[in-house]
Write a structure and sequence with these properties.
This protein is 22% helix and 39% strand. With 465 residues, the protein is α+β, with helices and mostly antiparallel strands. The strands form eight sheets. Strands 20, 23, 25, 26, 27, 28, 30 and 31 form an eight-stranded antiparallel sheet that branches.
Length: 465
């Protein structure tokens, strides 16, 4: 009996041990599956030069991992040899690395046309038998050491502070990435395809915020996908602009009513302090409105090639007088203290209340909205980066996306926005920057600075295909 009882107890213990082992195995498997130490996602590799490389600029590589990177290796491979460009074991935990890997050094000019870049990265996961997850990627890369061909074919020659100029260029590269015109290396203007392949045109603007003495130059910049860059200078004679300074006393009832109303309509908080309220309307909201104008204009730049740019002279609102000019520097005073200053970047025309606003040139309606200090505003896109702005309107008779024609009535003048009386603020925009409308109201200026330049440029292109 004792032997049988002992055997029963032994069998019972064995039966209990198996479920315990199964539970331990399940718990262990769950730990391995769900523990961060055993994560199974391999590192992610991003190479900027994933199609071509100039062998001059460093390789721009980004490594990321959910756990932590422990090592990486970058190898240069061609038909003759393999060179390790960089290899490192990391001693500190990091989930992201941005690398600038120097190109290999050669004794003579490298003449190869195709190479491979192999990038290996390993993380600290305990998966894969405690060795970590590894990503091993090889990129096929074309060697491109030739810079884009960049030539200034023709341009307006003269530009005034606050004014405009036209530039026509040739940019050719089968591997072209981007090309633009830069003013003072601070303002970039996009190129618009012109007439035949590899040719472009752009109207550029001298932002009035850039003083005459700060002018540094205008250049065409072209960069290909391999990182090769070429720069061509645009020859320009420059002229200053005579700034008119105006001192304006702001009445309290303007801040109590107009400033408050404008801020509320734009869902902005209205400060209780009157000075702070005016400054918020005149400076902060103005900056936001100007940003909106520029974004709308840049979004609607043409992408298709053009050959001709027929343009009528812009004319004054019929029967009106000029209440304010372009480039006036306004200094605002409240209770005999200067509280702010700002540019007036357009022409204010006043005649009778709710006078008809008709167009000098047709185009597309790209904006129709209440815009803070500008009030009810319409922007018409005329092409080649040129647009016109009509602010403070009362009634509008067009819709966004609508094509409008010369002499069409689009709105009536009004008192919406930050104004004291009924008038039209007329602005001319070059890629979203307000420029001097007087130039665009001069038929001789349009002919010599725009139309003739395009005509001559087409002749040059035809002569030198």
């Amino acid at each position: 009996m004792r032997e049988r009882n002992f055997g029963d107890r032994k069998n019972t213990g064995g039966r209990l041990l198996i479920p315990i082992l199964i539970i331990i195995a399940i718990l262990g498997g769950a730990f391995i599956l769900f523990s961060p130490q055993f994560e199974r996602e391999s590192p992610i590799i991003k190479l900027k030069q994933n199609s071509s490389w100039n062998l001059k600029e460093p390789l721009d590589i980004e490594l990321t991992d959910n756990s932590s990177l422990v090592s990486y290796k970058i190898t240069f491979i061609d038909e003759k040899e393999e060179k390790i460009l960089e290899e490192k074991i990391l001693t500190t935990k990091t989930q992201k690395l941005s690398l600038k890997v120097a190109p290999p050094k050669f004794d003579t000019l490298y003449k190869g046309k195709a190479i491979k870049i192999r990038i290996e990265a390993t993380d600290d996961s305990q998966w894969v038998f405690l060795t970590g997850n590894t990503t091993d990627t090889t990129y096929d890369i074309v060697v491109d050491t030739k810079s884009p061909e960049t030539v200034v074919l023709n341009n307006s020659r003269y530009i005034s502070r606050g004014g405009s100029a036209l530039v026509v260029v040739k940019v050719a590269d089968e591997n072209l990435d981007t090309a633009y015109i830069t003013f003072n290396n601070t303002h970039n203007f996009k190129l618009i395809p012109f007439y035949k392949p590899n040719h472009y045109a752009a109207i550029i603007a001298w932002d009035i915020n850039i003083p005459f003495e700060a002018f540094q130059g205008v250049n065409v910049v072209a960069i290909d996908k391999a990182g090769n860059k070429s720069i061509a200078k645009v020859p320009l004679y420059i002229q200053d602009f005579a700034v008119k300074n105006d001192n304006l006393n702001i009445p309290q009832n303007f801040i109590d009513t107009v400033s408050k109303n404008v801020l509320e309509k734009m869902n902005e908080e209205v400060p209780q302090d009157l000075t702070a309220r005016f400054v918020k309307q005149n400076r902060e909201l103005r900056a936001k409105n100007i940003t909106t104008i520029k974004e709308v204009c840049l979004k609607n730049l043409p992408k298709d090639s053009f050959s001709d740019f027929p343009l009528n002279t812009f004319v004054r609102l019929q029967g009106s007088s000029t209440a304010a000019g372009f480039g006036e520097r306004r200094h605002y005073f409240f209770n005999n203290q200067k509280i702010d200053e700002a540019w007036h970047l357009g022409l204010d025309w006043a005649s009778v209340a709710q006078d008809s606003i008709t167009l000098s040139n047709g185009g597309d309606v790209i904006f129709k909205e209440y815009l803070g200090i500008y009030g009810n505003t319409i922007i018409i896109n005329h092409g080649l980066g040129l647009a016109t702005l009509y602010a403070h309107t009362t009634n509008q008779f067009v819709d966004i996306g609508q094509k409008v024609t010369t002499n069409q009535k689009i709105a009536t003048t009004g008192i919406t926005g930050a104004v004291l009386g009924d008038h039209l603020h007329f602005g001319v925009l070059v890629q979203g920057i307000e420029v001097n409308p007087i130039e665009w109201m001069d038929p001789n200026w349009i002919k010599t600075r725009i139309t003739d330049i395009l005509t001559a440029s087409k002749e040059m292109i035809n002569q030198n295909p």
